[in-house]
Amino acid sequence: MDKVPPSTSSTYFKQMEIHIYNDSNDFSSAVADWIVELIRVTLVSSTRFTIALSGGNTPKALYELLAATPRKEKIEWRKMHIFWGDERDVDFADPRNNARMAFDSLLNHVDVPREQIHVMRTDIPPEQSAGEYEKMLKEYFSGAAAGQIGSRSFDLVLLGMGDDGHTLSLFPGTEVIHEENRWATSFFLTSQNMYRITLTKTIVNLAGTVAFLSTGPAKAHALKEVLKGAYHPDLYPSQVIHPVSGELHWFVDQTAASLL
Q: Which end of the chain is more exposed for a tag (fewer CB within 10 A), N or C?
């Protein structure tokens, strides 16, 4: 069992920021502007910006805003390095594929060099895909992999949260929730009858900034339990995400936050 982090009690709100918006339009616009500014500030002192993308409908609306004027022109796309948090083991052409969604809504419309876009492959066995992804990540973030003090992984990890409290492919009751060593792994999710490829909490918690995006009334109960409930990551896996030295942000709408 994981140790209880200080962020899963009444002190949680002192160690993260929660941003609540009136509706989906305000939400998406505000998050898009926040990301544009984070990229701008980071690139003042860095030659690249590394981001792990999320799947789902909420990120899709966000990506469409980032790919459109005026925000598109405010981002130095050729300095962006793109990764994914998780993937379903389905063909790239399948609409359920997270990378496919990101290309359709964002990457096909901006000028990111192809060699800086790192998809989780689904044309090879999932365990091989996860192994290749982990190897690539540890080379990319070699300082963090070596445990160097102050070294981080991604500049930004975007996460969603399911109605059941899962994030990435960390679903309730799955062993991957407690993975301590691997940065990426794969497993068969019986409830969905498919393999999933996912980052683990280990690399995500080394990020400079982690941002959860959660909207809609169906998320209200899980959000309350994750933020204010007892620490039960096997029931609410999103609780294992608490950056070691980075920032944690929750962007939510009024309906998701209704029970807080």
A: N
